[in-house]
Amino acid sequence: MAGQLLDLQRLDQGTDAFVAVDLVGVARRVVLELAPLAFAAGYEMSFEHDDEAVVVTGDQTSLERAVTNLVQNAIDHGRRRGTILVRATNDRCIEVSDDGDGIPPTERDQIFEPFHRLHQGGRGAGLGLDLVQSIMRLHGGHVEADQSLSGGACMRMVFPRAEVAGSGAPAG
Predict the structure, then answer these.
(1) For the domain that residue 24 is a member of, what is the CATH number?
(2) What is the DSSP annotation of 131-162?
(3) 119-157, pLDDT tens digit by residue?
(4) Which residue, among 99, 116, 120, has the nearest Cα to 107 in the 3D structure?
(5) 60 and 116 Cβ atoms separated by less than 8 Å
(6) Could you tell me which of 160, 24, 14, 39 has the C-alpha nearest to residue 95?
(7) How many CB atoms lie within 10 A of CB 15?
């Protein structure tokens, strides 16, 4: 957690060093890194992507940390059953879904508050989702909580639309 907070502080100093980052590559790396942990906890792990590359401007290290936090949350709160799906989409999103109990609609905004925990006595300090939200804000996007098709949680990192080079206008 200390490393994550230091990364956020570094990013907060300025986004001048943002570069092209492939969301498909970010998601793939996190899945490969955390799959053994998910398997050991009783999950299957799945990775999907719409295109071979979905490029945004950002900081790769912090984006990998954000996706890692979402996958670790799915491992910690998915009731040790089913599949954790990580998906990179054409519309500049990364989704992490599980087959757990999901997040009640009345709690979906509060889970991003610092130190808020959906279940008391669980792991962590309640800072992971706040950190993901902060990282996404620095990238001009946001994170949202939804329900997966199975009724579990679906956390979605949504990046701003691409701009057409030189026009300042959104593409597509």
Answers:
(1) 3.30.565.10
(2) HHHHHHHHTT-EEEEEE-TTSSEEEEEEPPPP
(3) 555 555 556 788 899 899 999 999 999 999 999 999 999
(4) 116
(5) no
(6) 24
(7) 13
